[in-house]
# Entry
Amino acid sequence: MIRNIYTGKVITLNVDTVLLPNGVTVDLETIRHPGAAAVVPIKDDGTVVLIRQFRHAAGGFIYEIPAGKLSVGEDPLHCAARELEEEVGYRASSFKLLSSIFTAPGFADEVIHVYEATGLTKGRQQLDRDEVLEIVEMPLDHTIRLIQDGTIRDGKTIVGLQAVYIRNVTNR
Amino acid sequence: MIRNIYTGKVITLNVDTVLLPNGVTVDLETIRHPGAAAVVPIKDDGTVVLIRQFRHAAGGFIYEIPAGKLSVGEDPLHCAARELEEEVGYRASSFKLLSSIFTAPGFADEVIHVYEATGLTKGRQQLDRDEVLEIVEMPLDHTIRLIQDGTIRDGKTIVGLQAVYIRNVTNR
# Structure
């Protein structure tokens, strides 16, 4: 049984009565989210294009990779390409799916599809009125140091950067 | 201004009216969560101790590292040690903080503190009635392949496994 608590602009909150595989029945607060796509944009010289974005829930500006919510029925790859151009003003000739991650499976169904984008060319940045961000470019190696020292803290961003780094280091 | 929509057992849903740094005012659906701790448990021979856990929001069983919510005022390190023993039955002589990640900063304030745990000795597993999981042990190297082929999809789990792998490969 699903009890709808609130339908918002981005998320819906339900309380689901669930029969677990061990026979126990529990009420679980469950956030429904449309899902999202995110992109690690890598320039030909190995530079990564990040953003520093204002996030109310995180209490300020945080480092992230470009990302955005899926529209209804939207192909995640299309969403990734759209957000890459809108948020940081780049187009890419090649997208490769790195992971499709559950961000918070304890209480939310959100999946973020994380891509690597290469073959970048200049497009046109076009921010929404509620997007507050600046573009920050740095070598991939440096992003790994900023993860290790606690400067980069966004989950999807760390997943994407570390995945590209591991592939580069291990050639697989 | 914060408008409380729902106070649940795990999460609280608010709608916050926020003045952004660009002068725009928006209403943002914001999930408040107590935060959590998670652990990558590494045995002396390099084997990683994972779980396959039933997650309603993810639609079934998924691979994860042991993790749990912080109690009010609880030190994340204490929580990590507690969850390690309760979920997989190990104690550890050493914990190292890898990252404190925002899981979904677009709509939630949840932070998960991700640790590496080494020097494992047998303790006593003690599952809650709503926890349905089995323990799965494998070499660290193999977890990286399961991330790359899409088998391991949990965000905090990928962050932790990749971080340990990168430290091992690069010795930093």
User: Anything to note?
Assistant: Chain B touches chain A through 66 residues (CB under 8 Å). The mean pLDDT of chain B is 97. The helical segments of chain B are 76-88, 140-148, 155-170.
